[in-house]
Amino acid sequence: MAIEQEVLVSGEEGLDAPDRFTVPSAIATPEEAMMGVAASDGRSSAEHSIISLRPGTDAFADACRKLDRRPLGYRFAKRAFDIAFSAVIIVVGFIPCALLSIAIAFDTMGSPIYTQERVGRLGSPFRIYKFRTMVADADDVEKYLNAEQLAEWHREHKVKDDPRITRLGRVLRRTSLDELPQFLNVLVGQLSVIGPRAITYDELAHYGINVTLLLSVPQGITGAWQAGARNDATFETGERQEIELGYARNASLHEDARVFLATFSAMFGKGRSGR
């Protein structure tokens, strides 16, 4: 069994990230991570990098950069697309989003915009923006969820048939329109249009030794997991990690185009229950 230690989280005062999260102490070497091979527990510390780094520090960021094998041309093209596409969405959607915000405020009796701290590329924390789809006091999970649902929530950070979701919220989630405010995150460089889903500090532990690989590429509004077997691939089975890490290893314009087109099918296909 891999030795585990607590790694302090680097966050801003007042944000809701936990004070610490637990990850295995040994992380895969760049070659192992790119091949999808986990580090064995029997090796000496000289053969593995040891995680004693806080996300958000230069040392942690350097560990992530070593795993980023994306060509410079691809990075430039991806960022150019992110800026152009998000700018168009923001301009075209400004008035519809303003009207939608009013409807959400009446439906949820709370602020139409929901923010939460997530972990971005290189381990940097940022605030993600979404349209509110749940009741205003949804963070009080024990008020709304039964024991079985609470267990699912703590394991996956999502619940099937979540009772906290409003009627309008279900429509927004089914069509992914609740993600529209995230184009502001894309415009300022905190997210990409396509990439692994931005997760919370608690969820980093699911990626174990491969957490630096996950954070070596920009997180996205949509990605291989969201556009694919989203509701079936979970942290518990390990399928979600495989999908997200697979994208991080093989990011390319071809893969981005495939995910982009698949996203529209997912948006108008069967409903989703993810966050």
- Count of the separate structural domains: 2
Q: For the report, how would you describe the main beta sheet? A: 2 strands, antiparallel
Number of strands: 8
- Helical stretch tally: 11
Envelope shape: globular
Structural class: alpha+beta
Rg from alpha-carbon coordinates = 19 Å
Compressed to H and E, one letter per element, the order equals EEEHEHHEEHHHHEHEHHH
User: What distance separates the N and C termini?
Assistant: 31 Å
Q: Note the beta-strand portion.
A: 5-15%
Low-confidence stretches: 1-30, 37-51
Helix content: 40-55%
The strands making up the biggest β-sheet line up spatially as: 1-2
Overall pLDDT:
81
Structure in words:
This protein has 275 residues and is of the alpha+beta class. The chain folds into two domains: 4-65, no CATH class; 72-267, no CATH class. The chain contains eleven helices and eight strands. The protein has helices at 30-35, 58-65, 72-108, 141-144, 147-156, 167-175, 182-187, 211-214, 224-227, 239-250, 253-267; strands spanning 4-8, 20-24, 26-27, 49-50, 113-119, 125-131, 192-194, 220-222. The strands form four sheets. A two-stranded antiparallel ribbon has the order 1-2. It has a two-stranded antiparallel sheet with strand order 3-4. The chain has a two-stranded antiparallel ribbon with strand order 5-6. The relative contact order is 0.15. Mean pLDDT is 81; it is low at 1-30 and 37-51. One of its GO terms (cellular component) is plasma membrane. Residues 78-268 form the Bacterial sugar transferase domain. The chain crosses the membrane at residues 80-106. It is found in: Cell membrane.
